[in-house]
Structures are given as C-alpha cells and as structure tokens.
Amino acid sequence: MVDIFDEVDEDLRAERAKNLLIRYGGVIVAGCIAVVAAAGGWQAWNWWQAKQDAAAAAAFVGAMNRTEASPLAGAGDQSAAIAAFEALSAGAPDGYRTLARLRAAALKAQQGDLPGALALWDQVAGDSSADPLLRDLASLLWAERQLDKGDPALLEARLKPLILPGNAWRPMAREQLALLDLRQGRDDVAKTAFRALAEDVTAPAGVRGRSTAILGRLGG
Question: What is the pLDDT of residues 5-57, one digit of tens each?
C-alpha cells in the first residue's frame, strides 16, 4: 500500500510540475534570456569602458610628450598640447578628464594665461566627481597663483580646509597661509607658523627649507 501511495504521490508531483512548466515556461525562458543578455551587456560595457580608458591614456601620453619631448618646446607645441588636454577634459573618463584639466591649467599659467589657468583650477576644485586629492590640489594651486594680489578672505577660505589634519596638502597650505599673513603685515603670526613648519618633520623638505630661510630674513 505504501508503494502505491508513493507512486500516486510521484505522479501527482510530476503532473503538477508539467502543468507549472506549461503555464510558466515562457516566463522561465524569458528570465534565462534576460540573465544571459545582462551578462553579455555587462561584458560589452566593460569592453567599451576599457577601450575608452585606453584611448584616453594614449591621448594623454601623446599630449604629455608634446610638452616634454624637448625642454625648448616652442609656443606652437605648447598651444597644441593645451588644445589636446582641453579636448581630453571635454570627453575623457573622469580620472583623465581631471588630470587633463590640471595639466592644461599648468601650461596656460606657464604661457601667461593666468585667468585661463585659474578657471580650470576652479573647475577641478568644484567638480564633485573628481578625486578629492586632486580637487584639493586644484584649490591649492588656485590660491598659490593669487597669493600676492588676490582677495585675502577668498584665499583663506580656499586654504583653511586644506590645513585640517590628514589632508595631503596640509604643509603647503600652511605655508601659503603664513605667506598671506606676511602680506597683510601679521609678521608675528607668520613667524609662529613658519617656525612650526621648519620644525615639522612630516612636512616636505622644500617647505621646511623655505620656512627656515624666511625665518632667517624675518629675524627668527
């Protein structure tokens, strides 16, 4: 009797499975197709992204070579390099776009186009999609190039967030703020800042050396 019940139970299960397959077979097949399509789409996206990154890398290296192939590169080469970097900054993936804008800004500053350079640094500093490290670097460069004539309040507003503990640009930002104090006649405040920088073993050697030299000129 037990065997008969088992057989009946198996037949019923088989019949239910058959009915379910007939009823939902299309949905199951569609689901399988969707999974395969999603996997194929993901692979295609990765391939396309890798291709874009490779193209951006090649273009970036090519633009760099135009500026570094010779220390005597002419103005034409510099202008062509700037144009190449600006083209990259318009359509390259995020990382290369940010690097291209920073490089174009540096070249513009070298050629005397400070307003153009400041505009690019300001773009990077305000770009929420850019790496925070590069955004802070852009703010530092933006302030550094205006330290002698820029609005002190605006400069301090850009530099003070960079002196927070843990910021990679902290020593350089502290140096710029100390120079800004000197410009505004706050010599004692500046001396204290330069003395701290000169004794800060975590600061780059260049920052410590300049701080020591300035302290010497200020009489310690």
Answer: 344 345 445 555 555 555 555 555 555 555 555 555 555 545 445 555 555 55
Residue with tokens 């990077």: 124
Secondary structure letter of residue 203 according to DSSP: S
Work out the angle between the directed axes of helices 170-183 and 205-218 (0-180°, nearest 10). Answer: 20
- Residue 64 has, within 13 A of its CA and on its CB side, a CA count of 12
Q: How far apart, in whole angstroms, are the C-alpha atoms of residue 85 and residue 107? A: 10
Q: Where are the alpha helices (DSSP H) in the chain?
A: 2-68, 75-91, 94-110, 114-125, 132-144, 152-159, 170-183, 187-198, 205-218
The CA distance from 184 to 120, in Å, is 27
Quickly count: other Cβ atoms within 10 Å of residue 131's Cβ: 14
Contact status, residue 211 vs residue 220, Cβ threshold 8 Å: no
For the chain, give every domain's residue range: 54-132, 146-220
Please give the model's pTM, rounded to 2 decimal places: 0.67
Write out the two tokens for 145. 């190039």
